Amino acid sequence: MKIWHLLAFLLVAAVGTGAGSAQQTVPFSGGIPVAPLGLAGRRLPDAPMEFDTGEGQRIRVVVVTKALEYPWSLAFLPDGSMLVTERAGRLRIIRNGVLDPQPIAGAPASYWAGESGLPGAVHGFMDVAVHPRFAENRLLYLSYTKPLDEKRRTVAIARGRWDGQALTGVNDVFVTGAPGTTRIAFARDGTLFVTTTGTPQQPNSPQDPDSLGGKVLRLTDEGGVPRDNPFVGRAGHRPEVYTLGHRSSLGLAMHPGTGEMWQNENGPNGGDEINILQPGRNYGWPVVSFGRTYPGPWQSERPRHEGFEPPVAFWMPSIAVSGMAFYTGDRLPKWKGDVFVGALRTGEIPGTGHLERILFNEKMQELRRESLLTELRQRIRDVRQGPDGLLYLLTDEKEGAVLRIEPAS
Amino acid sequence: MKRLLMLAVALAATPLLAQGPIAVPRRPLPDGPVAMETAEQRIRVTVLKGFAHPWSLAFLPGGDILVTERNAGRLRIVRNGVLDPQPISGVPAVYGAGLAGLMEVVLHPKFADNRLVYLSYIKDLGNKAHTPVLIRARLDGMALTNVQQLFVATDIFTGPAAGSAMTFGPDGRLYLVVGGANDAVAQRLDAYSGKVLRFNDDGSVPPDNPFVGRAGAKPEIWSYGHRNMIGLTVHPGTGAIWESENGPQGGDEVNIIRKGANYGWPIVSYGRTYEGPRVSDSPYKEGMEVPHIVWIPSIAASGLTFYSGDRFPRWKGNLFVGGLQYGRIANTGQLHRVVFNENGDEIRREALLTDLRQRIRNVRQGPDGLLYVLTDEDDGALLKLEPAE
Prior knowledge:
Helix content of chain A: under 10%
Number of domains of chain B: 1
CATH architecture of chain B: 6 Propeller
Distance between the termini of chain B: 65 Å
Radius of gyration of chain A: 21 Å
Strand content of chain B: 35-45%
Shape of chain B: globular
Oligomer: heterodimer
Helix content of chain B: under 10%
Largest sheet of chain B: 5 strands, antiparallel
CATH class of chain B: Mainly Beta
Order of helices and strands of chain B: HEEEEEEEHEEEEEEEEEEEEEEEEEE
Strand order of the largest sheet of chain A: 3-4-27-26-25
CATH topology of chain B: Neuraminidase
Number of helices of chain B: 2
Number of strands of chain B: 25
Number of helices of chain A: 2
């Protein structure tokens, strides 16, 4: 495997564009710098690991399972069992800490392609969410890439009933009509937020109110349009749109105090953002960004955000933000109120995934930021708080894991 | 109702007073060489201990290394990898509290002929007041002789020490930065704080400095609107002066210094104040320079250098920037490597030496084509980075 990587690198390096004399030769492919080998992957150990962290919160990291392949999202059922999606289109369940070897039956067929983290990757299953009244209706929501025919595919939101063993009565409640990645989350009022991405074919769709690309949508739990959506009844505007101007959203979490929906999105080369979603607002992509394009020039001529909503937090360089959660539990008291964001890689270098923690003041203004679990060298795809008040992470790896962060005694 | 929500948020947020130390535990620096994997190059780090808060270093023609120690105000010399226990004599007394003390050391471009070295340091003015000073002296064996004071920043500082890095430009002029500008003084041309200054090698003012002859402006000023804790280096290809500076909380910058230009502090910044609010609504304003590289969160950027040697072929042309701490958490220092495309635009950034948990104060390329790094600790060290097989 390693030799294969090295060979691939040498090949790419050999055909790479020649650079200036004083500069190392950086190979480009399709206008994008080819990432270096990066830091070599490390296998997760079986035994728990302990780490010191910045607030005096010593933690133990337990590997719940590493028998998953590129897990994408997780959700907790009222009985404490954990649902996990895998990007290859499988829905898995972990009961009492044990992964059921059989994927859950009844989930929809999906399309996936490529390798996670590389250009051209398409994820089969993405997010999974539990209906706010699950105890009554047993409804689960799944966002996934739905194959339409041999060539076309779209992001869709499926809903099915959980009978304790399988999904039944699965149907699509919403079809976005475009490919990409998506997160979904229920808001306090019971509406379902859905993130969408633009496409290379329509790079300006995030600014087009008549397109569903590069938006956050707000839907009813049936997939319909809530009457109080900001653009309902406005000509040239899709009524599902809640906010505009997003790039590649990979995190969505409701603030536990305000009920506002927080979203994060990947900038290109710098400019990853966390935004607080306000109805009808425009978050600027691709007109404004704090980041650079992958080949190097700034995305916007000036690093301005005038006329657009500024992010509440951003990253320079990029950390490839992914899933996001507010920590509200009591088990990790030094972290109460902090925001956790998964990071797939830092500064465009493979092997540098980690978990990012941000401490805010009472006005939700940032005070400090910490990189956690850098030693593990895992791409962190998702982070959630469990009903036990602990933090759960997913690693976006071939030998993908569920990690649990506990206080170390 | 809104007030109730606010209250709920306030309760949910971490009570700051209940915090433990905002630091990860320190790690003792190993004595022996340490092998490390990096993204594009395996390296071996050799450790030379025995320095107290070293600040800067300079290579003598024979390969010996001069190292300044900040608080003690000592100039040390390393010969063949061995630190001379005796400091070099003749360094004036420095104000050595906190971040103040002896800072930069640079050699005259014609040092081989004239043996001239330049030092910047913070001078004690009494009553806790202090100010940056530039001196020039001859290095005669283990002594500085003919010590001349070339410049005193007339600003009186009582706050944090003004970081005072220096470099000679390809034009033969000496560039000195005066930091310490936590407020609007950085915008005032009648003050030195928050400026890059430019001198002739004898400390006089070059006539083509941009504010020469302007009433109320200090003629030494080359650029303004800078903040603090600054590094300076010369781009080996273009000859441009590159500068690093600390934002407050977020917004550390690397700037390409242009004559007479305004770099914006404190009118615009990418960062937040330490208390949380943004410094400015927008990081950009017409007429102010855009930083070339920005850090969010801050790494407490320190010294910087371009790598132009052959020993690390995959690092050629990369910019190395020291970081004292990451995200306002102590013991998280690192060395950053920035990779550019052919036009000098950033395409990649890597954090190195993170496992060491040392405050990285400075980085320079040696005449042997290796990289040398200083750690800003009580038991500080000179690290030598070599390629490892």
